[in-house]
Amino acid sequence: MSVLDIVNIGDPFLRIPARDLREEDIPTPIIQGFIDDLIETMRHARGAGLAATQVRSPHRICAIEVADNPRYPYKPPIPLTILINPTIEALTEERFDNYEGCLSVPNLRGVVPRAVGIRLRALDRAGAPIDREVWGLSAGTYQHECDHLDGTLFVDRVIDTKSLCTWSTFEQYHRSAFVDRVEALTSRFGS
Ligand code: NI
Questions:
Q1: CATH code of 173's domain
Q2: Rounded to the nearest whole angstrom, what is the distance from the C-alpha of residue 49 to the centroid of ligand 1?
Q3: What is the model's pTM?
Q4: Disulfide-capable partner of 111 in 9, 26, 152, 163 (CB 3.0 to 4.6 Å)?
């Protein structure tokens, strides 16, 4: 396994929509090895998720994991999840304001409206289908990662650019109000 280079905003590769993977390619050593590298790179960078486009891979694959993450201590846990060819459908018109950051957008955070509930369909790394609903803050994490596979970054979805801040000004001025909103959300949905 190896830690891959994560590219930053401005790299054209981040803007190229990823391609669906053929099911017969999922078990190959190349793809399984890539998935191992994606997980190792995500954990090394302490990300809550990492998409293939962020490491210049053209495949529609992303990894998500939240476990005591120091970047996002208020996030409810999400066990390690690999999504291949994921699609997301909003289950409600209701949106919540998510303060997002991204490993490919160093030291910037901003508020992005996200659906509070989604239906997620994908394949896992064994090629088995995933079809589930995700609600609450965790739904925002899935939407952020799947956006990457369409060449979309969170900054594209920031409506109020006055919400943009660094990680340190987030801590200083925005964290407290956001954590209050997160607690209201997680107490409603448990995730
Ligand atoms: Ni990101």
A1: 3.90.45.10
A2: 7
A3: 0.96
A4: 163
Catalytic residues, by residue number, are 145
Structural domain boundaries, residue 162: 12-189
Q: How far is the CA of 143 from the centre of ligand 1 (A)?
A: 10
Average pLDDT, integer, range 35-58: 97
Distance 54 CA to ligand 1 centre (A): 8
Asked if the structure places residue 90 within a domain, the reply is yes
Answer yes or no: is 103 within a domain: yes
Residue 71 alpha carbon to ligand 1 centre in Å = 13
Neighbours of 3 (CB within 10 A): 13
Number of domains present in the structure of the chain: 1
Residues that place a CB less than 5 A from ion ligand 1: 102
Question: pLDDT (tens digit, 9 = 90+) per residue, 110-145?
Answer: 999 999 999 999 999 999 999 999 999 999 999 999
